[in-house]
Each structure stands twice: as structure tokens, then as C-alpha cells.
Amino acid sequence: MADCIFCKMARGEIQPDIVYEDDEVLAFRDMNPQAPTHFLVIPRRHIATTNDLEAGDTELVGKLYLAARQVATAEGIAERGYRMVMNCNPEAGQSVYHIHLHVLGGRPMNWPPG
Ligand code: 5GP
Ligand code: ZN
């Protein structure tokens, strides 16, 4: 996707503060953090929303979570706890239409979320 901001990051055209990367997955710090630790984990391949996931994406989605766990551990929030959120479509507050797993930690989280 030519003008998708997260695709531009995946292609290296924009350089976020990267905390993890491999062939399929990229993780970087959110530019507007909502917690002391807040990073996003994305697939390099463009998938607009979780509604667009297909059966063949099963392993890829698992890799997003494993990368999240790895970075959460490295950031020192794994034992205390952290929240992972993937917003889908407007009512959930999705603003970038390239799926991304929010990982937030470093403070107590409220439930239910707003
Ligand atoms: P959403 O609202 O789609 O669930 O989350 C999008 C997230 O992407 C927001 O938390 C926002 O701060 C973050 N974001 C949007 N554009 C950029 C960017 O250019 N760089 C970084 N690092 N984060 C971004
Ligand atoms: Zn994209």
C-alpha cells in the first residue's frame, strides 16, 4: 500500500523507534504513548483490519503476540503485567488501517477500557 504509514515503516521509508524486527514483524514505540511503555507490533504485510485476516494468517498473528511478549520482557513489564489491544474499525477507535497490536504497560490498567 503506497501511502499507508505503517507500510512505509515496514519498507524502511520512515524510521520509527524500532524495538523488534524480523522478516515478517516490526515493533516500534507509539509516537503518542498512553502508558510509560507503549509500543505497536505490526506485520510487514499490509492487512487493513482484523476483519481482513484469513486462515493463512494464523501463524503471522501468533508471531505478533510472540514478538509482543519478547519486547515486553525486554522492557521489564512482563512480570508486572501489560495490556495488548488491537482496535478494529471506527467504533473501537482504529485510526491507522494497517493492523497493529498495542502493547501498554508500566502502570495499572483499568477495566473495562473506555
Ligand atoms: P489506533 O488508533 O489505530 O488503534 O492506533 C494507532 C496508533 O498509531 C496510535 O496510538 C498513534 O499514536 C500511533 N501512530 C500513528 N502514526 C504514527 C507514526 O507515524 N509513528 C508512530 N510511532 N506511531 C504512530
Ligand atoms: Zn500498510
Mean pLDDT: 97
- CATH T-level fold name: HIT family, subunit A
Side by side, the strands of the main sheet go: 1-2-3-5-4
Question: How would the global form be characterised?
Answer: globular
Strand percentage: 15-25%
The N- to C-terminal Cα distance equals 31 Å
* Superfamily (CATH H level) name: HIT-like
CATH class, named Alpha Beta
Write the H/E string, N to C: HEEEHEE
What share of the residues lie within helices?
10-25%
Tally of helical segments = 2
Number of β-strand runs:
5
What small molecules does the structure contain? guanosine-5'-monophosphate, zinc ion
In CATH, the architecture is: 2-Layer Sandwich
Question: What can you tell me about this protein's structure?
Answer:
- The chain has 2 helices and 5 strands.
- The mean pLDDT is 97.
- Helix content is 22%, strand content 22%.
- It is of the alpha+beta class and 114 residues long.
- The chain has helices spanning 5-11, 58-75; strands at residues 18-21, 25-29, 37-43, 82-85, 101-105.
- Zinc ion binds next to helix 1.
List the defining traits of the structure above.
114 residues; alpha+beta; HIT family, subunit A; five-stranded antiparallel sheet; 2 helices; 5 strands; binds guanosine-5'-monophosphate; binds zinc ion
Short description:
This protein has helices at residues 5-11, 58-75; strands at residues 18-21, 25-29, 37-43, 82-85, 101-105. The chain is of the alpha+beta class and 114 residues long.
